[in-house]
Specification:
Shape: globular
Order of helices and strands: HHHHHHHHHHH
Largest sheet: none
Number of strands: 0
Distance between the termini: 8 Å
Length: about 250
Amino acid sequence: MGLRRDRVRPYLLGEIVVVLLLVRVYDWVRRLAATRSGEAERHADDVLALERVLHLDLEHPANDWLSRHGLFELLAGGWYQFAHIPVTIGLLAWCWWFRPDAYRPARTALVAINLVGLAVFLVYPVMPPRLLPGGGFVDSLAAAGLGTGPAGPVSPDEFAAMPSLHLAWATWVAVLAGTVLTGRVRKIGAAVYPLITAAVTVTTANHYTLDVVAGVAVALAATAATGVLRWAPAPRPLAAAERAAPT
C-alpha cells in the first residue's frame, strides 16, 4: 500500500527554491528604500496620528522605560535580533522532518504571510520609530551594541515596519506549535512567545503598536486560510498490535 502524500516529506530542493525566490523579491523591495525615505516618514506620521486617535500610542513610554534599564534593553535587543529566524525556521524544519502532513499547510501559510508583507512594504513603506527624525526614540539595539537593525542573511528593509513580520512569524509559531506539539509547558511557551515578541518590538522602537496588530492579523488570516488553525493534535504513535494488523 502506498504512502499517503501528506505523510511524505516534500523534496528539500524545491523548498529551498521557494525560500530563495522570496529572498530575491525581498531584496528587490529593499533596494527601493533609498528613493522612499520621505514617503516612509509621512506614512509613519500617519500611523502615529491614527494611534493617538485610538489611544494606542504606547511607543514613547515603552521605549523610554526600556532605555533606562540597561539589562532589559540588552535582553530585548537580543530577543529581537536572534530569536526571530532560528525559532521560525527551527519549527518549520521540525515539521518537515517529524510532521510532513503539518509541514505543507504551515509552509504555505508562512509563504503567504511573507507575500502579504512584501506587497505592503512595496506600496506602503513605513519608517520605524527608531529612524524618525526628531522622533525622540532611542534605538535600543544600537544602544545595547547589537547593531542598527534586525540580524539576518539579507540586509533589512529599513522602511518595512508595517506589518510587523516579527509578530506575524511569532503568531505563526504560536499557532503551529500549539497544534503540533504536545505537553502543557510547550503549549504555554508557544502562547507566550508572541506576547514577548510584541513587547520587544515596541519597546525597542522597531515597530508601532499598529504594526503589531497588523502582523498578528496577517498571520491569523494565513493560518486560517491554509487550515493550520483547524488541525487536530499530533496523532498518537501506533501500538505494536496495530502496526502488526493486516491491511
